[in-house]
């Protein structure tokens, strides 16, 4: 029963990530740094942006499997599905026709959802999505603060994506600054709160 609950909470967290990504995308100002990397890879390889996302995820999972298999689990498969479903739903049904200030506020809100949702999903220890698992595995292996590791990875993805020809947008910059700290704070807070419930 506890394992089912762990996976359910993890999927809910990943659904929040999907809402955040969708919200950022519909503003037209971009989402997180990974999107820039996917776009850049798709311009230089005979693959779509979706296939580039799969390529990056698989690469992350291979690295994590070599560093720390404990970061992987059932939710490693379930979470990306939940994220993609909610991202697509928002992009399909939400239209934002507002000024730049409102769009910027929505990007900050969406990026916050990504960081918080990732933290909730990670706190369950049901298995982490590839990129999040990589952040945690590297943080443990290198004994570097999780927020700094995630910010560093996001910055690397953003710069690499830009070099490869990805679009420069404000969303990924906000993501580099916010997602790492929010991921760390939320996973720590939720981990403590969930401990009595999940054991």
Describe it for me?
The protein is an all-alpha fold and 199 residues long. The protein is built from eight helices and no strands. Helix 5 (100-123) runs parallel beside helix 8 (170-198) and helix 7 (146-163) packs antiparallel against helix 8 (170-198). The longest helix has 29 residues, at 170-198. 49% of the residues are buried. The mean pLDDT is 92.
Keywords:
199 residues, mainly alpha, 81% helix, globular
Sum this structure up briefly.
This protein is an all-alpha fold.
Secondary structure elements and pairings:
Layout (H helix, E strand, L loop, with lengths): L1 H26 L5 H12 L4 H19 L6 H20 L6 H24 L6 H13 L3 H18 L6 H29 L1
Topology order in helix (H) and strand (E) letters: HHHHHHHH
Question: Can you summarize the main beta sheet?
Answer: none
Structural class: mainly alpha
Contiguous runs where pLDDT drops below 50 for at least 5 residues: none
The coarse silhouette is globular
Write down the Rg: 16 Å
